[in-house]
Design a protein that fits this description.
156 residues, mainly beta, 3-stranded antiparallel β-sheet, 2 helices, 10% helix, 47% strand
Length: 156
């Protein structure tokens, strides 16, 4: 899978995947310019004894996006929700894929372009979001919560 000519010349792998309703099958925070960061989400998953608890979310170092896609492959995107951001800067999208343990979140701009995509193998699918100012609280299908500050540089 390589870039192709688009309105600005080259469209990256992540944009291609998103347009095809697919995503990398590797934990990471992905950007449309094909850069990324490692992402660590250590459950609790669907059958974890602490279901209903906060979901830890830690960003790591740079991620080789092309290598992650080459080695791990891709999976389909199953969207469960799309919610307008309270400040009018776009939308948040969320859902999952695969066997039920994989979740994703995506920030979409006002022009409907992808700003970032977070793929989390052990989060379970995300079913909804509510906003508390610049903070978004996502809930997965087992009522676990992931709280993100959308003004953080990595997520703005």
């Amino acid at each position: 899978m390589g870039p192709f000519d688009g309105q600005d010349g080259v469209v990256g792998m992540i944009e291609q995947l998103w347009a095809a309703e697919e995503m990398p099958f590797h934990d990471g925070l992905y950007r449309p310019d094909d850069t990324g960061r490692e992402l660590y989400v250590d459950g609790p998953g669907a059958y974890h004894p602490d279901a209903g608890q906060p979901i830890p979310f830690r960003l790591g170092g740079p991620l080789d996006v092309a290598r992650a896609i080459e080695e791990e492959g891709i999976i389909e995107v199953n969207t469960y929700f799309e919610s307008a951001l309270p400040d009018g800067s776009g939308w948040m999208s969320g859902g999952g894929s695969g066997m039920g343990n994989i979740g994703y979140l995506a920030r979409i701009g006002t022009d409907r372009s992808l700003r970032w995509l977070a793929v989390m193998f052990c989060s379970n699918p995300f079913a909804g979001v509510h906003h508390e100012g610049a903070t978004a609280v996502f809930t997965n299908d087992w009522n676990n919560r992931l709280t993100l500050d959308l003004t953080a540089p990595e997520l703005a």
